Amino acid sequence: MQTVERITKLSLTREEMLQDYRIACESRQASLTGRKEVFMGKAKFGIFGDGKEVAQLAMARFFRPGDFRSGYYRDQTFMFAIGELTIQQFFAQLYAHTDVEQEPSTAGRSMTGHFGTRLLDDEGKWKPQTSAKNSSADISPTGAQMPRLLGLAYASKLYRQNPELHQFTDFSVNGNEIAFGTIGNASTSEGVFFETINAAGVLQVPMLVSVWDDGYGISVPAHYQTTKSSISEILAGFQRDAPGEQGYELFKVKGWDYAGLCEVYQQATQVCREQHVPVLIHVEEVTQPQGHSTSGSHERYKSKERLAWEEEYDCIKQMRNWLITSGYADHAELNQIEAEAKEAVRVARANAWAAFNTAIQEDHAQCLHLLDQLSGSLEQNASKIATIREELSKTINPLRSDAIRAARKALRFVRHEKSAAKRELVKWLETVQGENAERYNSYLYSQSDESALLVEEIKPEYTEDSPVVDAREVLQACFDAALAREPRLFAIGEDVGKIGDVNQAFAGLQDKYGEIRVTDTGIRECTIIGQGIGAALRGLRPLTEIQYLDYLLYAIQILSDDLASLQYRTKGGQKAPLIVRTRGHRLEGVWHSGSPMGMILHSLRGMHVLVPRNMTQAAGFYNLLLKSDEPALVVECLNGYRLKERIPANIGEFTIPLGMPEVLKKGTDITIVTYGSMCRVVMEAAEQLETVGISAEVIDVQTLLPFDLEHQITDSIRKTNRVLFTDEDVSGGATGFMMQKVVDEQEAWRWLDSKPATLSAQDHRPSYSTDGDYFSKPSADDVFERVYAMMHEADPNAFPALY
């Protein structure tokens, strides 16, 4: 464990120390006031950073432009200190103000304590990062900030070690940036924490983790959380023995010791920044004066002795004592700072509430006026409209939804009317509903001119000399061209480097482009994804591989809660165009041939999910994604790498558009919708169906998110009047998703003469062996018989029962 020699005189001026004290007092008062606002009903929930103020001030002192934070929802003091959060913005988030100018972190989409800086301009383009103090967007799942933190630090390593990246000075100055991470002591029990700590030690990246240790995880004390009740003690083996060796620098410091904290952070950041060594600072004896959150009281689970100790060792109280005893300030001066802090918070809170309320009151007043007009124009139901209007007028602290509810309810009573007043109310409702869609529903996907949906289609080109090769070689050629073209591109994953991945799509590319571009990782799916997210946030173009689709479950939480929601939860303020490559569908065995597509589709809204049937399609998707600014998952066919395909002459350039199904076979009797490896199965069945007089049209959807943007499947059903959706997922999975999209959303039910049908795999994991595959997943025989049964129902004379 590293010890720090006491510095008799801090490298801070008296004015800087008093400014820190002012920020601490303002932050504490914001926490106290925020809690009251929740209890008064003006906010839904509060979770605050009281007790962590002084440690965060010390960390902020050594946080430089270009650095990144990946943090914890109690870091308000740090954000105040680096100048990336105002007190008014803090309260705007508490009230869920949807104006991005008032609440730039999330535009009201995340609860209080979720901070982030706007890395993108209004056009969705990157702002310079090296001249800014940057914070990645917070998420609530405890510990889930850690994988992304690894990637933010890994980017510094790439920017330092890859000379081709030195040109990108808006993102890095030779990799000198630190990624600062913060986490509560209890959350260090999460597996993602340990996985990240180990990965950073292996990679030797400039990652500095601060553990705020208040001795509890909500009500559960540390001895239930951590072996030896100390994260630094159990991580002691990570301490490197000497400079230049693999390992960490570990520090311990008290959370109430301002001078000690500044000394530790000064030394820790120096070694982290200069030597690219990961660092962990265990900040002990932190207090939490208001308990965990507004949902409960810590008096219920802390002893009187503990509460008394926390009052005495409150970090602000201790800092005040130190300033006085060290001769930097007197009681009167600090009393004045405290009074001014209280007033500053009062004014900021009032301004935030006024700004929040004013925007809503405009809609509120307009709705009341329109309801007045409507009531006055009616002969019947006027009293009912007047009652609705009266109830709305009495609403204290109205929400946007209050006026909307009132208008919608009123329109039910005038559904037979055709008055001008009704038309005005409908027009207003449509307008505000559109405005609220922008406030609450926008930016699930990119809205920039680099959106994947806007990338120009370039068709593959073939010549007489285009070679026929194993399909894996198509991907190899695609990745080779991409690595040559784009210096920011790198690929990481288990076995990707030395052997070129288990299916050889990167064979020879590490030798050609170097280990820094094509890199092996440990077996750690969660942090492979995190490594990619963080690097993508810093302007790089990572391609991260999860070896098998089944193993995506290790990383699904990070993909879902962090990556897929990033553009949405920042309202277009941040993006991470990470490409996740994996392989799945048909092969053999429980753990290598799953197709949990329904789970993926429901978990990863905000990412594109692409399911190419062969490697040429996959290559076209990779080329397109590298021209876009959006994250995506590409699921290659596990049994397709050794099938034969032709390499397009424009292997590095052709693109396949998203959301555009392809008709593989035209037909007139039934439409069969599928994707991936099932395309070959369905095509075989379609040929067999032809022999008994059934003409099947086979459609490969190609991408599940987005899905059939131009309703081509419904166009097919208009002709065939029947549809079968089939895939290898469990029943009700992706087949159910496709049916809902087509039959409900596209309204294909209008053209159906038979009920829509699905054919999926068995509900268990696929069994091993060729027979296991046959009896676990739909076969050509199954497709044939399901289609034949539908035709038998329609015309039993022409298609008598098979059994």
UniProtKB/TrEMBL annotation:
EC number(s) given by UniProt: 1.2.4.4
Record domain Transketolase-like pyrimidine-binding: where: 469-643
Superkingdom field: Bacteria
Protein's UniProt keywords contain Ribosomal protein: no
PANTHER family registered for this protein in UniProt: 2-OXOISOVALERATE DEHYDROGENASE SUBUNIT BETA, MITOCHONDRIAL (PTHR42980:SF1), 2-OXOISOVALERATE DEHYDROGENASE SUBUNIT BETA-RELATED (PTHR42980)
Annotated SMART domains: Transket_pyr
Described purpose of this protein according to its UniProt entry: E1 component of the 2-oxoglutarate dehydrogenase (OGDH) complex which catalyzes the decarboxylation of 2-oxoglutarate, the first step in the conversion of 2-oxoglutarate to succinyl-CoA and CO(2).
Cofactor: thiamine diphosphate
Keywords per UniProt: Oxidoreductase, Thiamine pyrophosphate
Compositionally biased intervals (Polar residues): 128-142
Disordered: annotated segments: 121-142
Name under which the protein is recorded: 3-methyl-2-oxobutanoate dehydrogenase (2-methylpropanoyl-transferring)
Root EC class: oxidoreductase
Coiled-coil residue spans: none
